[in-house]
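Residues determine shape. Next comes a sample protein:
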Amino acid sequence: MAGMLALFTLLGWMLGILINLLSDSLPFDRRIERPHCLACTAPRPATAWSAVIAWLTRKRPCEYCGVCMRTRNLAVEILAALAVPALWYLKPAGIQFWPALVIGSVFFLITVIDIEHRLILHLVTTPAAVVFAILGFLNPELGLKRALLGGAFGFILFLLLYLLGTAFSRWAARRNSVPREEVALGFGDVTLATLIGLAVGFPGVIEALIRGILYAGIFSIAFLILMVVRRKYSAFMPIPYGPFLILGAIWVYLQGWTSLGRLLGM
C-alpha cells in the first residue's frame, strides 16, 4: 500500500510538472515549449524544470534576469502530487481511476489557465472533447448516448447564455458610449460546458452546471463585497467563470447527480 501511494504521488508530481509546462506555453504561443522564464523567455536549466526541485536547490531566480519562478508552479505540483494518490486511495464508487485521472488533469489545466489569463483555449477543449466522448463510450455506467446528450445540453445552454451576455455587453457599451472588451461569458465557457456534459453525461450535466453557476454567484457576491469594503469596486469586474463550473463538474463526477436525483424523486 505504501509503495503504491508513493508511486501515485510521483505520478501526480510529474503530472503537475506537465500542467505547469502547458500553462506556461499554450496561452502565449499555442504550442508546447521547453520550460522557460516567463519574464525574459530564457530556457530554464534542468534543475529548474520542476518547481519543487527549484525550491529545494534554490534555483527559483532566472539565471539571466533574476525573476523568480511563480509560486503557482509549486502549488500546482504539490496539489497534483496530493490529488492523484488521494483519488487512487479513496476510490469513489463507480469511478475508474485512469479515466478520472485524464478528466481531472484536463480540468486542472483549464482551471490554471483560466485563473491566470481568463482564457479557455480551444486548443485544449477540442481534443479533450474527443477523448471525453471516447471515455464515455467505454464507460458502461455512462455510455456514449448519455455523454453526447450531456455535451449537447451543455453546449446549447451556454451558447444561449453567451449570446445573451454578448447582446447585453453591446447594449451596455452603447449606453455608456465606451467599448467593452470583457463579456460575462466567453465562447470558451461554451466549450467548457460541452466538456462537462461529455464527462458527467445527461442529466448529471444539469446539476453540474447549476452547481457551477451557484458557486460562481456566491464567490462573486463575496468578492464584490470585499472590493466595496476596500473601495476598489468597479462595475463589470471580470471574474473567471471556468473554475466554478469545473468545481460543479467534479462534484457530480465523483458523487453523482445526487441533489438532482432527490429533486426528481429518482
Observations:
- The chain is about 70% helix and 0% strand.
